[in-house]
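Notes from hallway chat w/ T.B., transcribed later so I don't forget. T.B. wanted the structure written out for a chain they're using in a teaching module, and asked if we could keep both sequence and structure tokens in one place. Agreed to drop them here.
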Amino acid sequence: MKKRITALVLSIVMLFSATTITSFADEYTESEKTINTLGEDLLQGLVGLIAKLIKDPADWVAEDEYFKKNGVADKATEFVDEAQGDYWYLGYGSGSLQTGKELECYVGGSLSVTKKLATEVRDDQRVRTVAVSDGRAVHVFASLDCFGFANSEVVKVRKMLEKYAKENNIASINISALHQHSCVDTYGMNGDIVNAILLGPVRNILGIENPSGMDPDFMDHLYKTVIKSVEDAVEAMEPGNLYYGAVDASKYIRDKRDPQVIDPNINRFRFVPLDAESNETWLVNTGIHTVGMGASGTIVTADYPYYMEKYIKEETGANFIMIQGAELAITSEYGEELVADAEVLKEYNDEGYARLASYGYTLGELTCSIQDSKKLDPILNYARATYTQRVENNIITLAAKCGLLSNTVVKSGDEYKVVTELGYIEFGKDVAVVVAPGELAPEIAFGGATTAEESWSGTTWDFAPIKDNVDGRTLIVFGLTNGQVGYMLTDNSWHSFLCENEEIVTAGPDAGSTFTLNFYTLLGMVR
């Protein structure tokens, strides 16, 4: 009976998670808020009770025990204000993550009570990597076509590259997820939910590892491909100049959730080698969900970045890598003028996918239109810090206990916490980057947070925008980098997951403030 109840409750919860709800807080009456809050409290209480009855997985240890054994991932270079050399050094590597057996794999994007196995593969799923240096240490940035990549997986890749990193003066390895909702599951949450709920508690009692949505063969190939891309990028490093520029893409961006705050730009770092025969490399950053095929589909596609790269490569020959920005509830805005691409429509007879292609081509064209606004001095200052995020969302706890999430979970008394990282980077004297291990609310970085009057809870957000504390530098966000802890809202923007979509895949109401507090602590240590 307990197993049946567990399956029923989690199934109901998963149905909520698959629904995109676009209502705003100020549309709710006080009575509606009360009803939704009470409903959430009841469901959270029931799920929490069930979660308590399930034995913890064997590898969930006490927080102090974990860090005593594993240490922390903190890392920092010396922060300098003047260039130590004349040029930047950059290399590029890329490889396909696909094995040819994708139809045997689960597809990420949204939880499903049925087996969400891939039914078709439309385009490639890749890793793209740059190794960059200001003449001091080397820093690696790899970006994956995938829904999510937990910090535990990032740490695993770093350990595999530990010897190579020491031999090649690599100071940091950073891995981002582009957050496609239509790629093979690399996070674990899209496994066989019924199997997980029914047999997960038994496996925990027996000390047997729970299977997840990650296919072992696919992941083994992924590790090897990422490692090779890092080695290729490091070995291809050459001198050149680095430029930063941006273009306003707000016409093609829609924020589904108040407050209406976005980074309107497509940001571009453009590396121009001294060798005129070498290809340029463009690192592109923008905060737009890659969910053009919906969250619950089973067609494997890398979404609009695939077509951005295709356009840019055909037009310029440049190497392409993209890192997501602050994309909390921000999605694509196609507009009436973005009609389905005729060639793609003819090939697939799928108007939605053909419009997705047009969207990618349009963003690619916009990226090519960027005029470099700054030539960046060769200064790369880097710092990252480990922190733990308390899990107050019992739905996340239950899913993790049953093997559906790949995050490292530690215990602190009666609390569960997820181990993750954040970071701060300076490129030259003009650009600052905040590194976030999830889907950051743009207002945390850029300002415009919900006021007390607008807030569901009637409270304020008392942190200054990060952009106001980076000494006048242009601020951009590398989101879903070195971890996946879900959405990070401002605390006073927390509603009820019965009427909003983001709360159901958030660790808890304090995810935003925990991140911000730890970020400002790190910033204060280096600046």
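Follow-up for T.B.: Residues 2-67+423-526 form one domain. Might be a good example for the class.
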